[in-house]
Prior knowledge:
Radius of gyration: 27 Å
Number of domains: 2
Helix content: 55-70%
Shape: elongated
Strand content: under 5%
Number of helices: 8
Distance between the termini: 42 Å
Amino acid sequence: MELADLLIDRENLHETSGFRSDTHYHVAEILGAAGQHNYLFTSSVQGSLDALRHQYDLKYWPTPCEFLEELAANAAAAESEASDLLTAAGTDGKRPSSADFVHALYAGIEENSARNFGRLPRDFTLSDASLASLMNCALNLDVDDMVDGPYIKRLRQRERERKRAS
């Protein structure tokens, strides 16, 4: 919003004084400059955008300030959330912990099981010791931080108790 306010000030300066600046004044011009290093934009979109820009007078287009105000309002109202089960499982905890990895791995196994049209067999399971080894390798844990089968078993038990309580 601060940038939009500065653009309003610049526009007022251009309209009410003898000063001008060599800056963007058209939203299509900004899009063209932003997309100049994007081959797909320059080869497929740029020509049509330029034609539209010249077909309609400036009064038909939002100003750069209005464009930025919309971006700011959209960003202010945005709420981030996990877009898939794996991410949700791995970030569900109140604070980061190694349990997040276990939750995410179980969600990944479930998501990729034959029950969900995945490639893992329906009855695929990992022992607590196997899961601990996988976790130690995947997270590249130091010797002092490595986990074992009983640790995983305790995690699973806590998870079951948490689910019963809720």
